[in-house]
Structures are given as structure tokens and as C-alpha cells.
Amino acid sequence: MAVEQYMPDFAVERAYDVTLASLQKEKIKAVFVDLDNTLIAWNNPDGTPEMRQWLHDLQDAGIRVVVVSNNKYDRVKRAVEKFGIDFESRSMKPFTLGIDRALKRFNIKKNEVIMIGDQLMTDIRAAHRAGIRSVLVKPMIQSDSWETQFNRWRERRMMKKIVAKYGPIDYKKEI
What we know:
Number of strands: 6
Protein name: HAD superfamily hydrolase
Pfam families: HAD_2 (PF13419)
Keywords: Hydrolase
GO molecular function: phosphatidylglycerophosphatase activity
CATH class: Alpha Beta
Organism: Streptococcus varani
């Protein structure tokens, strides 16, 4: 398992630190974002006012936001419908199924999109496999749903390998 496959292109504290200016500088026209612990805390479905403002700013600028989540359709729909954003559920990350579906569905070129997520093992790995740039964020809260806990254990092992090869990941304030 090559460390490079899990190394994010960018790392920021939170998804909302991916600024409109930085997206425009990178010529990004779409943002794929994980749902739980990235866009919203897995136990807070309403999100924060800051998150709602971020979505509003991106949408106003014509940047499409698509949630790409491994969760079931009903769970993702319930979580994002109040924000008026598109989604792909049952994405099967670390495989590229959801990313590929979203690219095709919205006619997005790979060099015009980034994937933002809080997990190396699913979000970052899927982005690399799909050939798109990745942004690692710190999880919004430290507790995870039970399904995610096994991935976190694997992720800690991979993070040690990344640190050994490249040094600690430097979380910036924007991409």
C-alpha cells in the first residue's frame, strides 16, 4: 500500500477554509465534499451558520457543490435537502463510483474539481483513484459513528507512514 495514494494534495483545518478566492485561483468549478464530519458533524444534521454561508458563497459564485457520501440515499437526502445542494449517495469510497457518477452527471472535468474529506482511507484515496485533487480536513468532532471507527484505526497507521516519509501534515488556512 503506497503512502502516496493517501497523501492529500492540500490540507486545511475545515472545509470552510477552502475559500472562494483559492478555488478561483486553482480554476475549480466544482467541489465534491464528504458529508459526515466534513460538511456537517455526523451528530449535527443542521450544520453551522458558517457552513451555510460557505455553501451560499460558493453557489453564488457559480461553483457547484456536490456531497459525495458513502451513506444511504435517505440519510444523505435528509441531511442536504435543506441546503439545496446535489449529492451522490452510496459512493463506495475508496472506490470511485460516486465520484465518477458525479463527474458524468454534472459534466465536470477532472481538473476542475476537488474532493474535500476528513478521511485518508476513503475520501483522499477515492480522489486519487479518480484522478482528481484532494483536500484533507480535520474531523469536525472527535467522535465517529461506529461504521467509521475501524477506518480511523487504519488511518492512524497510514498517518504514521506519511509522517515517517514526508513529516507531519501541515494544515493551512486555505488551499
